[in-house]
UniProtKB/TrEMBL annotation:
Residues annotated to bind L-glutamine: S78, G282, G284, F311, Q314, N352, G354, F355
Swiss-Prot/TrEMBL catalytic activity: hydrogencarbonate + L-glutamine + 2 ATP + H2O = carbamoyl phosphate + L-glutamate + 2 ADP + phosphate + 2 H(+); L-glutamine + H2O = L-glutamate + NH4(+)
Annotated region (Disordered), positions in chain: 1-29
Active site: C310 (nucleophile), H400, E402
Organism: Frankia torreyi
Protein name as catalogued: Carbamoyl phosphate synthase small chain
UniProt-listed PANTHER family: CARBAMOYL-PHOSPHATE SYNTHASE SMALL CHAIN, MULTIFUNCTIONAL TRYPTOPHAN BIOSYNTHESIS PROTEIN-RELATED
Role description: Small subunit of the glutamine-dependent carbamoyl phosphate synthetase (CPSase). CPSase catalyzes the formation of carbamoyl phosphate from the ammonia moiety of glutamine, carbonate, and phosphate donated by ATP, constituting the first step of 2 biosynthetic pathways, one leading to arginine and/or urea and the other to pyrimidine nucleotides. The small subunit (glutamine amidotransferase) binds and cleaves glutamine to supply the large subunit with the substrate ammonia.
Complex and partners: Composed of two chains; the small (or glutamine) chain promotes the hydrolysis of glutamine to ammonia, which is used by the large (or ammonia) chain to synthesize carbamoyl phosphate. Tetramer of heterodimers (alpha,beta)4.
Record pathway: Pyrimidine metabolism; UMP biosynthesis via de novo pathway; (S)-dihydroorotate from bicarbonate: step 1/3; Amino-acid biosynthesis; L-arginine biosynthesis; carbamoyl phosphate from bicarbonate: step 1/1
PROSITE patterns with a match to the protein in the record: GATASE_TYPE_1
Length: 436
């Protein structure tokens, strides 16, 4: 299986790297718009204007329903290899600032908006989003019917796509004006350039089978110190695509967070003598990343507390023996309702996932690491959104308690992790006391 190795604005995958003769991505000119095409794997296409950089890019088309937080979305490493469609029609209204980035670069493979802000307005803004995308070489498209596109993906599922603003001839495109019915796929009448683009989309790498965490992970370990005072707990955090807000949330609770590359082994994690091990969110298919699953099993055997979010939740599930599967179109946005099974409380959560864990919604499952229950359930479609181990100190959630962007309903989960680490330390002290 080929692996998506997208760099912003470039073709997805080595085998799809732009031919040497292709023009380099260059900023779109707002005064003289350049025509751009979004081509889906099933042949449906949309015509709009180049937005951000002019060029050609490939990735999985996914839609995000957040009304706000486009900067955090763009820089979330979990979106690596994906072309993100914003369902909110006005994007870029507050420009860009340096505080809202969740990693050191824009991570999406491409960006689709309906109606970009012509002039950003915010006291924090230092520039416009389209200039920022152009400077980063990120190819985008604007002025298309994002509602029709989203409905198409809801019916047909997330699929590969391309954005191209460099086609020689795109005159005969299957335009959204032709209607947004699911049956509106019309490959007939397309120009040779469009047919060739469709071929390129269909030979681009798929998200299923893509092992992308090592591509976005930190090459070297680094430490985020406790936000104030002496650190109370040492956390070893496996960076599978971590967002800045995550170690910051743990540091605010008195943790010293050691952020480690994706391929760190279980033995290396334990050698740090951490109070707890954290597994981050990340891009790609959780059915890959066997290295992290193995590391996690080593940690679980050592009875060290574990907390996983999103990709980390999926990997904890795999370590326990559950399987993961691909959702039709996933959950991406800041308004996803989740029920806490134990308390009956509902949290509105931030989510960004295309895969999910296959586990029973009710009852207790026996696993090699003891009994496990589903702790959280997605209220839109009954997807397992959390797991709790009853016999080892481990739990995980599919959503994002770090909430960047998003509501803070789930922030208490970091406190739960801290309390789990405190309880484990007390238990160790009691055992040591009993032995002496
Ligand atoms: N945000 C994440 O960690 C996403 C996890 C995984 N890549 C998925 O799409 O389901």
């Amino acid at each position: 299986m080929s692996t998506l190795t997208t760099t912003p604005g470039s073709a997805a995958g080595d085998q799809l790297a732009a031919p040497a003769a292709a023009p380099a991505n260059r900023p779109a000119d707002r005064a003289n718009p350049t025509r751009a095409v979004l081509m889906l794997e099933d042949g449906r296409s949309f015509v709009g204007e180049a937005y951000g950089a002019i060029g050609e890019t490939f990735g999985e088309a996914v839609f995000c329903t957040g009304m706000t937080g486009y900067q955090e979305t763009l820089s979330d490493p979990s979106f690596h290899g994906q072309i993100v469609i914003m369902t909110a029609p006005h994007i870029g209204n507050t420009g860009v600032n340096d505080a809202d980035y969740e990693s050191d670069r824009i991570q999406v493979a491409g960006f689709v908006v309906r109606d970009p802000a012509r002039r950003p307005s915010s006291w924090r803004s230092r520039g416009s989003l389209d200039d920022e995308l152009a400077a980063a070489g990120v190819v985008g498209i604007s002025g298309i019917d994002t509602r029709a596109l989203t409905r198409h993906l809801r019916e047909r599922g997330a699929m590969r796509c391309a954005i191209s603003s460099t086609l020689a001839d795109d005159s005969a495109v299957n335009d959204p004006a032709a209607g947004d019915s699911a049956a509106g796929v019309d490959e007939g009448g397309q120009s040779a350039a469009l047919a060739a683009l469709l071929d390129r989309v269909r030979s681009s790498p798929e998200m299923v089978g893509a092992d992308l965490a090592p591509v976005v992970s930190t090459p070297e370990p680094y430490v985020v110190p406790a936000a104030s005072g002496t650190a109370q707990f040492k956390v070893a955090a496996l960076d599978l695509g971590i967002k800045r807000a995550t170690p910051a949330a743990m540091a605010a609770l008195g943790c010293e967070v050691h952020v480690l590359p994706a391929r760190t082994t279980g033995e290396e994690l334990l050698a740090l003598e951490p109070d707890g091990v954290f597994l981050s969110n990340g891009p790609g298919d959780p059915a890959t990343a066997d290295y992290a699953v193995e590391a996690l099993r080593t940690v679980l055997r050592a009875d060290v507390p574990v907390f996983g979010i999103c990709f980390g939740h999926q990997l904890l599930a795999r370590a326990l023996g559950f399987e993961t599967y691909k959702l039709t179109y996933g959950h991406r946005g800041v308004n996803q309702p989740v029920g806490d099974v134990a308390t009956g409380r509902i949290a509105v959560t931030s989510q960004n996932h295309g895969f999910a864990v296959r586990a029973p919604l009710t009852g207790v499952t026996d696993t090699p690491f003891g009994r496990v229950v589903a702790s959280h359930i997605g209220l839109n479609d009954e997807v397992v959104e959390g797991l709790e181990c009853l016999d080892v100190p481990a739990f995980s959630v599919q959503f994002h308690p770090e909430a960047a962007p998003g509501p803070h309903d789930a922030a208490n989960l970091f406190e739960r992790f801290r309390d789990l680490m405190a309880a484990a330390r007390q238990a160790r002290a009691a055992v040591a006391g009993g032995e002496s």
